[in-house]
User: What shape does this take?
Amino acid sequence: MIRIGKLTDYGIVVMTHLARDPAQAVMAASDLAQATSLGPSTVAKLLKVLLRAGLLVSHRGIRGGYSLSRPAEEISVGQIIGAIEGPVVMTECGGQPANKCSMRHVCTAQSHWHRIDDVVREALESLKLEELARPLRLRKAGALQRQPGDQQPADRRRSKRP
Amino acid sequence: MIRIGKLTDYGIVVMTHLARDPAQAVMAASDLAQATSLGPSTVAKLLKVLLRAGLLVSHRGIRGGYSLSRPAEEISVGQIIGAIEGPVVMTECGGQPANKCSMRHVCTAQSHWHRIDDVVREALESLKLEELARPLRLRKAGALQRQPGDQQPADRRRSKRP
DNA sequence: CCTATACAGTACTAAATAGGTCCTGTTTAG
DNA sequence: CTAAACAGGACCTATTTAGTACTGTATAGG
Assistant: This one.
């Protein structure tokens, strides 16, 4: 299936946690780890990546930690994914100039993958961190309605976070 | 990055090849392998999967082979991906009932992932095999326009097919 | 009715990737 | 000056994916 890595999933959880803090305080990696029930080392690694991508700012020294580099409204899920997984492209061809692909003579799918990629990118870009941070109950009704039982009972292989 | 597996990529190439045959003839696995420059075993495996998903019909015996189970207009890229990779869901939560996720108390992202998944699914479903099979030059202009240099020179790790 | 050909199904091996942990700096508040 | 916390790696392991091989079954055509 098409999926993002666990790390990216964690990344979104961590970012959401930061965004949800009303005081926008600086939070230490260890605190974030506790708050999200993720391994401290894992969270630390994650934060470094997000920092380098410019989504966070860090403060060193004894009362150091991390905070969002800008308002949650200006950070998109696409940016978070991009920071952790690299650019959103679905096939081999996707990331490289079309003329580099060894199948380019046989394969006419190229331009279509680009279209698909664009749609996905766009969807991801339009979803802002601020929206994720907003508690479920308070979201504007209608937009997210979903029938109970709407969910497919697909077989999942991986199942739980550590 | 978000990406589909190589096998799926191959699957699309093979399906496209079948769809492109004007006579809609039955083609043997070995012929398809040659035509696509993929390993015969790999193609054979792939075809079985696509068969079981109902996208192909097979003919056994000495002049046997595979052909599309229905017109290329009625087969979507989403269906091909679904056949090979399983349902399109991007996170752990995605595939299972929301109340099963161990992070459900902390994580408010659930319903958003569902939305994203829907968008991706829809995009994939709307792209039909017929369109991929059509040679590039003949596609209706306008819909697919792309500036030269539009392509991001992102760093790719994997590079060529076997 | 026999046999070569091609699908059906499954099991296995090897390689790539991702996940997770740890260690050795460097900065800085107090 | 020192303890807390970030910076930046290196590294090991487990999972997943890719690719291959083997044994069985159906069938067209001589």
